[in-house]
Every structure is written in C-alpha cells, then in structure tokens.
C-alpha cells in the first residue's frame, strides 16, 4: 500500500512539474567564449532568439555556414498534439551527431571486449 501512495505522490509532483504553463530552469549551456568567423559573424545564442531573429540572422548566411540555425519539431511521447521545437546551429547538430556516433562505437567496443572478442572481429 505504501508503494501506491508513493507512486501517487510522485505522479502528482510530475504532473505539476510538466504543466504547460510551468517554466523549467534552462539547461546549463556549455561554457563557450564568443567566437567569430573569418567573415565577422559571432556565434549566436540560439536559446534566446525568437523566430524572426533567427530568420534575420540566417538571411546573412549561406545554408552551409557553421552558424546557420535550423529548427526541427518533434512530437512529445504520450501526447497526440504537443510538439517541441528545437533550434540549433549547424555546428551544434554536427557535434551532437558526432558524440552520438562516438557513444555508439564505445558501446559496441565494450560489448565486444566483454565477450572475449577483440575490437576487430565481426
């Protein structure tokens, strides 16, 4: 019985934490210094930019520029209508993809090592 009471309290606190009007503390951004490219474009703070600011910023860049900002929407699991919009620079998206690939390779290498197979066997 205690388990169900604890689960109900937990569920209630989660419902309060994810209500649509609630604002969560922003995730800590990586400590970066303001960098500029050779063409004088400073690295943007994407999280603080509105859609119109992003459009104006992108108008000065080519789509293959490392600071070009793209926004993607993804649906929220468990909801039929709610979507989240995530805007990142091209450089950030490439870094995230590279980190994910590195994590995958590390996991595969560890699995091979624990099975007694060297990293180069298939």
3D structure, described in words:
This protein is an alpha+beta fold and 122 residues long. It has a domain at 36-110. The chain is built from three helices and two strands, in the order ααββα. It has helices at 2-17, 51-59, 90-114, and strands at residues 69-75, 83-89. It has a two-stranded antiparallel sheet. β1 (69-75) and β2 form a beta hairpin. Residues 1-32 have low confidence and may be disordered.
Could you tell me the strand content as a percent range?
5-15%
Structural class: alpha+beta
Helix content: 40-55%
Taking pLDDT < 50 over at least 5 consecutive residues as the criterion, the unreliable ranges are 1-32
Number of strands: 2
Q: Termini separation (Å)?
A: 50 Å
Radius of gyration, in angstroms, nearest whole number:
21 Å
Shape: flat
Count of discrete alpha- or pi-helical segments spanning 4 or more residues: 3
Arithmetic mean of pLDDT: 76
Largest sheet: 2 strands, antiparallel
Please give the order of strands in the largest beta sheet: 1-2
Order of helices and strands: HHEEH
SSE inventory with pairings:
Elements: H1 2-17, H2 51-59, E1 69-75, E2 83-89, H3 90-114
Antiparallel strand pairs: 1-2
Features:
41% helix; disordered N terminus; alpha+beta; two-stranded antiparallel sheet; single chain; 122 residues; flat
At a glance:
The protein is α+β, with helices and mostly antiparallel strands and 122 residues long. The chain is built from 3 helices and 2 strands.
């Amino acid at each position: 019985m205690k388990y169900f009471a604890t689960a109900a309290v937990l569920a209630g606190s989660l419902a309060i934490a994810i209500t649509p009007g609630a604002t969560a503390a922003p995730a800590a951004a990586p400590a970066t210094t303001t960098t500029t490219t050779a063409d004088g474009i400073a690295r943007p703070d994407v999280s603080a930019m509105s859609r119109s600011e992003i459009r104006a910023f992108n108008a000065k860049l080519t789509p293959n520029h490392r600071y070009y900002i793209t926004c993607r929407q993804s649906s929220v699991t468990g909801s039929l209508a709610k979507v989240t919009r995530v805007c990142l620079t091209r450089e950030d998206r490439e870094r995230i993809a590279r980190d994910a690939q590195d994590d995958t390779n590390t996991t595969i290498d560890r699995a091979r090592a624990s099975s007694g197979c060297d990293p180069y066997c298939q």
